[in-house]
Amino acid sequence: MRKASNVNIGDNINIVRSAIAEAAFASGRAADSILLVAASKTQPFDLIRSAIDAGVDAVGENRVQEMIEKHSQGAYLGAPLHFIGHLQSNKVARIVGLCDLIESVGSVSLLELIGRHAVAKGITQNVLIEVNIGREPQKSGILPEHTSDILDAAAQINGINVLGLMAIPPINDENEKICYYFDKMFQLFVDIRGKKYDNVSMNFLSMGMSDSYADAIRAGANIVRVGSAIFGERK
Q1: 3-state DSSP call for residue 134?
Q2: pLDDT tens, 125-157?
Q3: What is the pLDDT of residues 209-234, one digit of tens each?
Q4: Residue 177 CB contacts under 8 Å (≥ 6 apart), including other chains
Q5: What residue ranges define each of the domains in the chain, with the CATH number in brackets?
Q6: Can you tell me the distance from the alpha carbon of 98 to that of 83, in angstroms, rounded to the nearest whole number?
Q7: Pairing outcome for strands 81-83 and 58-61
Q8: What is the spatial distance between Cα 125 and Cα 142, in angstroms, rounded to a whole number?
Q9: Which end of the chain is more exposed for a tag (fewer CB within 10 A), N or C?
């Protein structure tokens, strides 16, 4: 894991917060209704602590082993911890109960496995359902038309609480195209929110990263996962 740099985390977060406030205002919401998750993949202890001290709402990790190591060091004290990366079934037991929210649950089998481990530990694990909004074969996540199916299944699974949806749209340099996917996700979110499922509350829509978080907020996201705009470019 790389050493801390001289990046001014506080200044970067102020810039991000300002952009969040503008985007939230444009969508008719308050800035404090948007959760800023610091995506801390490969980031060292000192920079994570600086981000928490500067007021990020949560920290998000992509890799299970890295998250476990940093957790043991106390890197996340004072902030909720989200898992935002691809989750393999053989690593589920290691993070259930360790993080406050698993954002990347993209199959019924994974949801069932999380539920079993949560019940065994006597807890309820909060999750988001990951939607493969771009239908990319190399990405995990449920296809949009199957979202209702996984929520129907969630209603029958003990030990889990679905709090909303998450998506990683296709990488694209054209603003219009990524906004198209954000808009499709928001419409899906609204449609699902109008239905009633046990163990499901559509409170959160997580989408948007360092190069797209303002557009995601304007489209309706209320969780954004920001890495390089806070920590600087990864080396």
Answers
A1: coil
A2: 999 999 999 999 989 899 999 999 999 999 999
A3: 999 999 999 999 999 999 999 999 87
A4: 170
A5: 9-231 (3.20.20.10)
A6: 9
A7: parallel
A8: 19
A9: C
